[in-house]
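In line with agreed milestones, the collection of sequences with tokenised folds has grown. A representative record is reproduced below.
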Amino acid sequence: MRYKQSFSAAWGVLGILVLMLAWTCQPAQNKKDPNNRALARVHNKTLYLSDMEGMIPSETSSEDSAQIINAFVERWVRDAALMYEAERNVPKDLNIDKLVRDYRASLIRHSYEKILIEELLDSTVTAPQLEAYYEKNKDQFPLESDIARCRFIKMPRNTQDLKQFEEWWKSDKIEDFQMLVSYCNDHALAKILDDSLWYSLPDLGALWPGGAAELSNLQPGRKLTRRDENFLYYFQLNNLMRKKELSPIGYVDDQLKKVILHQRKMKLLDETRENIYQDALRRNQVNVFQN
């Protein structure tokens, strides 16, 4: 995470530095070309029509071209004013060239590492690998909130055949549950019918008229029905785990995959870095001079 944040910061600072260099190193325009007219000037910087080369498609109408040019000029004069102040206030001890070189090296290294990861990283995480990592590290994954396995349905009150639907809802027969699923696919506004999955109780409470507090007091196996002016709500609690208990593997499997892949990536980069270093040593390309 620190690596990503550092890289993002590098992009931001590098963008400012490159923009400053672009202003200071801007090539002179051919002012004698009558077609290359000046569009705007801020302090000692001038924007010419040729600076917009390639920005306006050839099939663009004259009216649209004028709009594109005007919009670009509006942005340019503001950027130019900002850059003038930035150049005036750059600390005298700021070595811009060194900063640009350092960030350039960082970006090149990041680009190479990205290629390595795309080509060499094994991104497949099997179920046994997940289970093995979970068993070894499950103490690191306490629940941050209550979670539940459940069934939930939100239905418009004017839905047809509600009586039949509620008979299926109350039934424990497999064939009735299949009919319930089919009915919900056609009529329900929201539904949770895969009761093998875990859901955060606060998230479920946001769907339920009585809120999470009412759901947290249910006993497993209980069913609730609520209604308001427009909708009917159905909830069945199958299992409940409390905050700070160890997360079940099914609730954190995505998180586990990310951790495993991150560790693989770091290992791949460390091994590649060491291999490249050892290869340079064998080729006598590494010299360390004593101070």
Remarks:
- The beta strands are 38-42, 45-48, 147-156, 190-192, 199-200, 223-227, 231-241.
- The chain has three domains: 2-119, 123-138+247-273, 143-241.
- The first strand starts at residue 38 and ends at 42.
- DSSP finds nine helices and seven strands in the chain.
